[in-house]
Specification:
Layout (H helix, E strand, L loop, with lengths): L3 E7 L8 E7 L2 E7 L12 H4 L1 H5 L9 E4 L2 E4 L2 H19 L4 E5 L6 H11 L4 E2 L7 H11 L4 E2 L7 E5 L3 H4 L6 H9 L3 E5 L5 H5 L2 E3 L6 H14 L5 H7 E2 L1 H11 L2 H8 L3 H13 L3 E5 L9 H14 L9 E2 L9 H4 L7 H4 L9 H5 L5 H10 L7 E5 L3 H4 L3 H10 L2 E6 L11 E4 L8 E3 L7 E5 L11 H11 L8 H9 L6 H7 L1 E3 L7 H4 L8 E2 L3 H5 L19 H4 L4 E7 L13 H6 L4 E4 L1 H6 L7 E6 L2 E9 L7 E5 L42 E7 L4
Parallel strand pairs: 6-7, 6-15, 9-10, 9-13, 10-11, 12-21, 15-16, 16-17, 22-26, 23-25
Antiparallel strand pairs: 1-2, 2-3, 4-5, 4-17, 8-14, 18-19, 19-20, 22-27, 23-26, 24-25, 24-27
Helix pairs in contact: 3-21, 4-21, 5-14, 9-12, 9-13, 9-14, 18-20
Length: 696
């Protein structure tokens, strides 16, 4: 009998970082389990990670490079694939310039370092990510406010946790793993949950604030109204370390009385006061926020206000509060990515750069700007694309426009595991390796103080890890890269004194945590203080103080539209099984969630003759999608909550039903609806109507 080997590695089935022990027999992974030695997941794994073997060995997975020939896919070699791509890219660069090539990723497979380096050395300023409305948007806003991204210090037992639009038990987002939150909660931490929907955590909360979707910034300003009125702030910290306190306090007193905030948010004044007091008076306390707060026109202003709350209450960079974790000493992503290789001349060509200055500062392009350029040829033609680990036809707003734009490109390359609706539009398909098939210093771009060793466990077909694809394609484009993946990882690890082989044996590195660093050196902002009055935004001609802006498409701003579309659509309901548009072909996971669900209040459903399990049309001014009704009395009767990311891999048509249940057929990506400095897409507040699907 073949020996079973046990290999320690790190998951990336969702946001990544969980320690894994892979059981390997005869060159095949037969099982994975959580690694109890992991410093951040402590032996836990979610459904997505546990199902990795069904993904890696799925019969529909594409294991070889493919080329479209007369509308049909045919297998080719890696040499032919890379030669074809590099030749086409060189043609585009020669005729139109490198800016006419877009390079895009989704939430990513932990290849950000190599992705950015490839794009910068290619010379294109047009790097598409999900960052304009997810994670990078909070990084950008926190950089301008306090100099770094502050994450909850769960290791030091916060006594109060404000869970703001996030469910880490299902999503394990970025810096966090659900187990860390749950341990703190089980030790007795008070829990404030802010969510339009009464989910598991809201039922566990000491206080649940059921706000109107999209009004998070107003609610945060309402917290401040209580903090200022009742003097619940740290006066010494405010005097020494906050820039613009008096101007900000004046705005709160003038514009954001508790009564006005309650009117905006639908949350009763006494409940806001109770929650603000609990947070401000309980030490230490932390705010853990999620992407719903970022996917509106108030993206930047919410984050700035939330950071202000941490600072004013004495919970910023304090043990058990929101802290600046120390990096573990590897080379930074900015250094690895060869950011300086992109000339100032090319930077100025970034699509939408003048309009969305914070996105430009984060070196990314708001996707709408790319789709516009492809479709109109302005400000210049965009002719080719390279999309890695992303399915924008399903995952981006205004999906019909996305499909039209990608279909218009002269040449498109996609790297992925399966033939997704986006991949079907490509000319060349490159088969990517899963996290079981890669070596990488994982997590080296996050703000939790760790890097972890992801070891290659198996090789499947001719799949390459994305890092290798970037390197080998880059070399054909004349770029400077290392000879091997291991060489690049050795360079990234060099400041730590460890080689890749040594790091694999060690497993992880953790930066030495220090607190109250501002007492010696201030904050990394122009004023060296927490900037509630932002000198950066002021320089850009923007309002330097946080505020609430009414959502452009809401019952308040568009009562005329609300006559036909009377409900607020909250798009993007998370599930424990899927990662955005991924995993719908995985048997274990699809069995848990076989159909897309739309949650409707029972009274609203009755009004439309809809029963539990009925198929329902959800319609907005931009399009419609159908999902299956689930009745939920934990949402407001005026709110509809729908899942995102749905397509049908089982459909053998080349479109895989991308437009049937795709909630992004309804969402808006107009410039008027976006955050004015980050370009964050408004996904959480739209107007819609519902009706029962007859005959379904």
């Amino acid at each position: 009998m073949a020996e079973v080997k046990h290999v320690r590695t790190v998951c990336r089935s969702c946001h990544g970082g969980c320690g894994v022990i892979a059981h390997v027999k005869a060159g095949k992974v037969i099982k994975v389990e959580g690694d109890p030695a992991s410093p951040i997941s402590h032996g836990s794994m979610c459904t997505k990670g546990l199902a990795i073997t069904q993904l890696a060995y799925h019969p529909d997975r594409v294991l070889y490079p493919m080329k479209k020939n007369g509308g049909n896919w045919e297998r080719i070699t890696w040499d032919e694939a890379l030669d074809t791509i590099s030749a086409k890219f060189k043609e585009v660069i020669a005729e139109f310039g490198p800016e006419s090539i877009i390079v895009g990723q989704g939430t990513g497979r932990d290849f950000e370092s190599h992705f950015s380096r490839f794009g910068n050395l290619l010379g294109t300023p047009n790097m598409l990510t999900a960052g304009h409305m997810c994670y990078l948007s909070r990084i950008g806003a926190t950089l301008t406010t306090c100099g770094r991204h502050p994450a909850i210090d769960y290791a030091n037992n916060p006594k109060c946790i404000v869970m703001w639009g996030c469910n880490p038990l299902w999503t394990n987002p970025d810096e966090y793993k659900g187990v860390s939150f749950w341990r703190a909660y089980q030790k007795g931490a008070k829990l404030i949950v802010i969510d339009p929907r009464q989910g598991f955590l809201a039922k566990k909360a000491d206080i649940w604030l059921q706000l109107r979707p999209g009004t998070d910034a107003a609610l945060a300003l309402g917290f401040f109204s209580v903090v200022i009125e009742e003097g619940l702030y740290d006066a010494d910290f405010v005097a020494k370390h906050i820039h613009g306190w008096e101007a900000f306090a004046d705005r709160i007193k003038t514009d954001y009385s508790l009564e006005r905030v309650a009117e905006i948010t639908w949350v009763k004044p006494d409940l806001i006061r109770q929650a603000a007091r609990l947070y401000a008076n309980t030490k230490p306390a932390g705010i853990h926020w999620g992407v719903p707060t970022e996917q509106t026109i108030n993206c930047t202003d919410f984050t700035r206000t939330a950071v202000g709350l941490m600072a004013a209450t004495g919970n910023l960079d304090a043990p058990g509060g929101n802290v600046f974790h120390e990096p573990p000493g590897t080379r930074k992503i900015s250094e690895f990515s060869a950011h300086m290789a992109l000339s100032d001349e090319q930077r100025k060509k970034r699509l939408g750069g003048d309009q969305y200055k914070l996105a430009a500062r984060m070196t990314i392009v708001t996707p709408k700007c790319a789709w516009d350029a492809i479709l109109t040829g302005k400000p210049y033609p965009v002719k080719a694309g390279y999309l890695v680990g992303t399915n924008p036809v399903v995952s981006r707003a205004n999906a019909g426009e996305v499909y039209e734009a990608l279909n218009k490109l002269d040449f498109l390359t996609v790297s992925d595991f399966f033939m997704t609706p986006t991949a079907e539009l490509a000319d060349i398909f490159l088969p990517a390796g899963t996290w079981l098939e890669q070596d990488h210093v994982s997590e080296n771009w996050k703000f939790h103080g760790y890097v972890l060793a992801r070891q290659k466990v198996v090789e499947i077909g001719e799949c390459w890890q994305d890092h290798k694809i970037f390197m080998e394609l880059g070399k054909r484009m004349g770029q400077q890269w290392w000879d091997t993946i291991e060489d690049s990882l050795n360079w990234l690890l060099e400041p730590t004194g460890l080689s890749w082989e040594e790091f694999k044996q060690k497993g992880y590195l953790h930066g030495e945590q220090k607190y109250y660093k501002y007492q010696q050196k201030g904050f990394s902002t122009p004023t060296r203080k927490v900037e509630l009055y932002s000198t950066v935004l002021e320089k850009w001609g923007r309002d330097p103080l946080p505020k609430y802006t009414e959502i452009p498409e809401s019952p308040v701003s568009r009562p005329d539209l609300a006559e036909k579309y009377p409900y607020i659509l909250n798009a993007g309901l998370r599930t424990p099984t899927f990662f955005h548009s991924a995993n719908r072909q995985i048997p274990w996971l699809r069995e848990i969630r076989p159909d897309p669900l739309v949650e409707i209040h029972p009274a609203t459903a009755e009004k439309h003759g809809i029963r539990e399990g009925d198929w329902v049309w959800i319609e907005s001014p931009r399009g419609r999608a159908k999902e299956k009704a689930k009745l939920n009395d934990g949402i407001d009767p005026a709110v509809i909550v729908a899942e995102h990311g749905w397509w049908y891999p089982e459909s053998k048509n080349s479109d895989h039903g991308w437009d049937v249940s795709n909630i992004n057929m309804l969402t808006d990506n107009s410039h008027e609806s976006m955050d004015p400095v980050m370009g964050a897409t408004n996904l959480r507040v739209l107007l819609c109507n519902i009706s029962r699907c007859e005959g379904e």
